[in-house]
Amino acid sequence: MAVWTISAQRGTGGTRLATELATAADVPLLDREALALFAHEIDPDFPEVDELEGRLGGRLNTLALSTAITAGSVDAFREIELRQKLPDLGRAVLAEAARSPCVIYVPAAFAALPQHPSAVHVRLWAPFEWRIATYQRENVVDRRGAEKALKQDDHNKRAWVKSLYRVDIDDPRLFSLVLDASRFSPQRLLETLLAAGGVEGAVAAGGDQQRPRRALDRSA
User: Which residue, among 84, 91, 88, 83, has the nearest Cα to 5 in the 3D structure?
Assistant: First the structure.
């Protein structure tokens, strides 16, 4: 059975798909909070995830860091040190998580596990207008609010992945599967990911789920 990594644009139903995939395949779902626990075990000084993503996503960009270092800022030196160790820490955390079958739902997992023999790296995307309509419907906001939220989330994820691994999250060559959420039903997407991971008979006709053989338990 596979290790699935899912990198989803906001508004494509990524959270739902990852949750249903983990349930159907009978494997753990590891999101950013769960992976942060792994990180804290390896490095107790690891920052909180929200704080970390905010820092790498734009507050201290390269120009600001360069200026701060020139001025002798201690915080800037600490920031540089953190950015230098994050890629290796991320690889270590995800390598530990991927020792047994699981669904990993974080944007950069595909870049941290490029050579994993059992990994199915999934990019879930959709046309921007479709995502806006979906976001408006699910969050009851106007078009302007939806557009702003989606653009900000896209920017943050691109910056996060680029900062960590120097790759482009929108490069389809880096993924095993690139799926358009606007063209397939959630059920079809689930079936496709299960099949890609070698799980047979997990989804019956009509959408009824049957439980496959249980994956190896991490605590065993």
Answer: 91
Full residue range of the structural domain in which residue 133 is found: 3-199
State both tokens at 156. 């943050």
Are the beta carbons of 42 and 89 closer than 8 angstroms? yes
pTM of the model: 0.79
pLDDT, tens digit, 9 for 90 and up, residues 64-117: 444 444 445 545 545 556 667 788 888 989 999 999 999 999 999 999 999 999
Q: How far apart are the first and last CA of the chain?
A: 17
Place of tokens 């669904």: 103
For residue 185, give the CATH number of its domain. 3.40.50.300
Q: Is residue 210 part of a domain?
A: no
> Side chain identity at 2, as an amino acid letter?
A
State the total domains in the chain: 1
107, 161 in Cβ contact below 8 A?
Answer: yes
Q: DSSP secondary-structure letter at 184? A: S
